[in-house]
Known about the structure:
single chain, 245 residues, alpha+beta, Glycosyltransferase, four-stranded antiparallel sheet, three-stranded antiparallel sheet, 8 helices, globular
Amino acid sequence: xxxxxxxxxxxxxxxxxxxxxxxxxxxxxxxxxxxxxxxxxxxxxxxxxxxxxxxxxxxxxxxxxxxxxxxxxxxxxxxxxxxxxxxxxxxxxxxxxxxxxxxxxxxxxxxxxxxxxxxxxxxxxxxxxxxxxxxxxxxxxxxxxxxxxxxxxxxxxxxxxxxxxxxxxxxxxxxxxxxxxxxxxxxxxxxxxxxxxxxxxxxxxxxxxxxxxxxxxxxxxxxxxxxxxxxxxxxxxxxxxxxxx
Length: 245
């Protein structure tokens, strides 16, 4: 999935997307066409071609949704969305956050390998849906984005003493006894929180933005945030051999 991630962060660095702008006809976005032809199946699954189990992750699906949105490729967007909903959310994204990992089991049958959702991908899926609703004027995207945003707040955030409302990397496995947490600064795109503050003013996205900004700033004393970090309500941020996954 390294090629996918590299393309994703290149896009983020070079392109500030504004779905409110007027949609104009333009030449096909060639990097998206190359990526789609090489990594996305006909039914909308992003495949890690180098993996033994033909792995698909929710992050991969979320990035493809964002790329399709930028490319104004509604057919691909719907294909990726439908596969994600059918195979990672048991047929309904409104009732279940997508599982993190899907692939072939020991019998070479496809299915969910890790059902724990990944909050970074959930944010990108909800964001892409919210912008697709504007770009293509489809209310169903808007409704689904709102439901996902609500589930993220309810299932993937926690109030941490000394830090505030914070995003957990997943609903399970990142909270420990004695108010200790494992967090990932890269999981919190602050501009998405800003957008959701406007779209859902009655939900605590402002608090999540503030807590996440503190996480990023306080872990970047040398200018760069770590991939993973531990937080203890008594001692603050720290690192140990258990920090990384």
